[in-house]
Each structure stands twice: as structure tokens, then as C-alpha cells.
Amino acid sequence: MILAAGKGTRMGRGEPKAAVPVNGRPMVVRVMDAVRKAGATRIIAVVGHRAEAVKAVIGEGVEYVVQEEQLGTGHAARCAEGLLACFRGPVIVAHADIPLLRDSDVARLVQRHRRTGAAATLLTALFDDPGSLGRILRGPEGRVLGIVEARDASEEQLKIREINVAVYCFNAPLVFEALREVTSDNAQGQYYLTDVIGILVARGESVKAVTMEVAHAGLGVDTVEDLARAQELSATHDRPS
Fold first, then answer.
1. pLDDT bucket at 143, cuts 50 / 70 / 90
2. Which of 38, 65, 96, 215 could join 18 via S-S bond, C-beta 3.0 to 4.6 A?
3. Cis omega (within 30 of 0) on the bond before 173?
4. Is 10 annotated in the active site?
């Protein structure tokens, strides 16, 4: 499941965020290529803002669902529940704005998820300056406890260097059961997919994490500066992994 409904208002460009190219290839296409190479055989794209333009960039061979209102990533994922109503097994969920995502990391994510029997497994990265990225909350023994968005984090939590890359492997239908418990009680008034992690932990479910081999491969593109950085790094990352 690729979440590609965002507007990208801070990008300062005419095309939808998911369609913005990095080194000549739209971000959403790059992410889809990574998950396909990692073994995904079915792709669902959640589109919203300028949906037809995003569909035109992606093309055929993909199932589409429209998020009519952009109410957050958790709401976007719930929009795909109908297409997966009969599915039982692992579902990769990735944001469309991670253009340097490597198939090797996605494959490691799925392998760890299957091997451990976890309810959810997420990709993380270590950044010296995580900025506005969501932080990974861990217990004394390193157990994943949840994810806190930077806007909602305490001063102490903002010191955490391990960040959420926004690429997950969830068990279905468990993920949709947890999504129904997500609320919009946060600084943005949105339904966060990240809240699913804390909900699963509270239920006593196992949540695992896999750290990316190259941290900058998890760079999310939200601003003009992010895009410039992704363009700069793409020459190094655009090679077989």
C-alpha cells in the first residue's frame, strides 16, 4: 500500500507531491519500484489531491483507492481496507515521498517481520539532527513502545536520534482493527498511522524495528530543501542495492 494522497504544499511546485521527480523519476514510482523489487506482488495506491494526475504518473498495473478528504495517514490507510477485506498476511505500507528507498531495506523489513511473527515491523534510521521527523520510543530493554510525532513530542523526546522512516510491514486484518482505534487528538487534528504502533503495543502485540543500512535512504521529501538534498544524493543511491 503506497500512500500518495498528500498535497505537498511546502514543495512550491505545480505537480502533486507524489509526482515530483527526483533524478527524472517521480517519487511515487521510485517507491513502488523498491517495494516491487523487494517482492511485493500487488500494489494499492491511495490517492487524493489531484488524484487523476497522480494516476497518470503511476499508470496501469496498480489498484487505486481515493482518499476524498486528506485527514491524515491513518485515515488514508483505512481507505484501502475494502480492497484488503479478504486478505490475511503481511502488508507493506509506505509513504510515496521517500524517493531514495532501497529494495534491500524493504526486503530486510519483510524478512524480519515474517521471522519474528510480529504484528508490525517498521523501518527506522539514525539521524544526528532528526528535525521534524517522528521519534521512535523504546523501553529500557530496547523494546519498541511507539512513535511520537515531533509536533507532539516533549523536549526530552526530541533528543531521540532514531526516527520513523514511514515504511512498515503490518499483519492484516490486525492493522485495520488498530486503525479503527486511532483518534485525531493531536496538534494537527489528524489520524496518524504512527499511532497504530502504540495501540498494538498496548494490546500486548509484538512490534519490531529494522534500522536502515544507509540513513539518508530514508529521507522524506517535504520541502524544497529536502528535494534538493534528495537530488544530490540520488546519484549515489540510484544503483543496484
1. very high
2. 96
3. yes
4. yes
